[in-house]
Amino acid sequence: MTRKTILYEVSEQSSRDFGKKYELTEMSAFQCERWCLKAIRGIVKAGFNIPDEFNDFPAQALVAMGVTAFLAIDELTQSELMSEILLTVKITSTKDSAFQPRKLLLSDSSEDISEVSTLIELRKEFFKLNLNFLGVVGNQIIQELQAVR
After folding, report:
1. What is the dihedral of CA 128, 132, 135, 136, to 10 degrees?
2. Is residue 36 classed as helix, strand or coil in its secondary structure?
3. Is residue 41 a contact partner of residue 78, using CB atoms and an 8 Å limit?
4. In total, how many domains does the chain have?
5. Is the pLDDT of residue 149 over 70?
6. I need a surface site. Which of 9, 15, 43, 113 has the fewest CB within 10 A?
7. How far from chain centre, in Å, is Cα 42?
8. What is the pTM of this model?
9. SS (H, E, C) 86-133
10. Which residues contact 50 (CB under 8 A, 6 or more apart)?
11. What is the DSSP-derived secondary structure letter of residue 55?
12. How, if at all, do strands 98-103 and 89-93 pair?
């Protein structure tokens, strides 16, 4: 079975990213679990405790601990996790042209993503796509991301 994909278009007209379209692809179950475990290790290292009822369920534990705990992760690990999120994203078009989907260019000089708000929205879409199986509980992390914004 193929991975789920979703399309995200920047619709905020005042954004430098207005009209850009992105395709996000779901991580494999193994990749998602590794990502969640890496995040949890960083959270535990920062001094948070995993609730006992989530010891065997890393994705659910991550959601239960929330964004506050995620923000406590050391900067290097947090940066790695955020970069891994962007590896699931391809850019498919700009306001002026469409092209074959390609991986994002992740450099300061790249114009694939020009606004922090676009990064935040793509990360929210990542959580919806990869942690949506958690249903209502999974929405907690999305709501907390919106509050941080």
Report:
1. -20
2. helix
3. no
4. 1
5. no
6. 9
7. 16
8. 0.77
9. HCCEEEEECCCCEEEEEECCCCCCCCCCCCHHHHHHHHHHHHHHHHHH
10. 40, 43, 44, 61, 65
11. T
12. antiparallel
- Distance, in Å, from the CA atom of 149 to the CA atom of 71, rounded to the nearest integer, reads 13
Write down the residue that tokens 């406590």 correspond to. Answer: 72
**pLDDT score of 135:** 47
Q: Which residues are paired to 21 by β-bridges?
A: 9, 93
Tokens standing for residue 67: 């964004």
Q: Could you write out the three-class secondary structure of 43-80?
A: HHHCCCCCCHHHCCCHHHHHHHHHHHHHHCCCHHHHHH
- pLDDT at position 148 is 52
> 10: Cβ–Cβ under 8 A, 6 or more apart, which residues?
17, 18, 19, 20, 21, 115, 118, 121
Residue 93 structural domain: 5-148
Residue 122, burial from CB neighbour count under 10 angstroms (0-12, 13-18, 19+): buried
Residue whose pair of structure tokens reads 């002026």 in the numeric block: 96
Q: Does position 138 have pLDDT exceeding 60, yes or no? A: no
pLDDT of residue 18: 96
Q: Give the residue with greater pLDDT, 143 vs 78.
A: 78
Q: Which tokens belong to 89?
A: 């994203």
22: β partners: 8, 91
What is the helix (H) or strand (E) element at residue 8, kind and residue range? strand 5-9
